[in-house]
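Look over both lines:
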Amino acid sequence: MTTKKFNKLMDIKKKTIVLTGSAGFLGPQYADFLSDAGANVILVDIDHTKNKKLEQKLARKYSTKPMAIQCDITDENSVKIMKNQILGRFNRIDALVNNAVFHPKTKNKNRAIKFESFPLELWNNAIAVDLNGTFLCCRELGAIMKKQKKGTIINISSIYGLVGADQRIYGKSKLNSPISYAVTKSAIINLTKYLASYWHNTNVRVNTLTLGGVEDNLYMNPEFVKNYSKKTILGRMAEKSEYNGGLLFLISDASSYMTGANLVIDGGWTAW
């Protein structure tokens, strides 16, 4: 394969890519990477202050057209307004990355909530963001892709949607992985399969990108990082940037014969 053919295969220049959870943990670096690759990234987040700053940063750094939209993806009307704002400026939607996620650690200082006392409110919040939000974004933006006769949706899941959370690795770290996260991330995988089969023969592709743990020194202590790393074949947690290649592959034409699939990038966690 020539360099020219390879570049064309991976090319996402001028594509309109909608990224939910753009102001969150992984969202900003996804947005930066996709902008660097030439895409016009639609930054969708409920935190408009952080999102607007990200838009301004990307606009200064790259010759693309980032667009920050404040949206509550758990609200049907808010998602419809977001869709219309995008179409009002770009006329089409090439890709949707459902990256938004609710996690108790962002809403509650007690990050070691046991299942026996897990609040119904937190459960409902997770269902609302992770499932209802993903459903609404897929429904509204996927319909546009169907009308265009082309588009790709990437739903972000986790290894804890594939296997049970190993509670032994948390030790005295005051961390845990909540039941709501495991349930929603598992559901995302089957939502992907349903939508891929539903939109058969429409040229709308739907895939899951399943991630392993990313090291975060802001709330992870050395004990947890060490215990987690021992569980992976590569012997470490991921860096934020190590999921960019998988994301680019699923958005680009390099994955043109791939739908209903689950691309797992986990350092070998699920291969043991």
Q: What stands out?
A: The chain has a mean pLDDT of 94. The beta strands are 16-20, 40-45, 67-70, 95-98, 151-158, 204-211, 262-265. The CA atoms of residues 112 and 176 lie 5 Å apart.
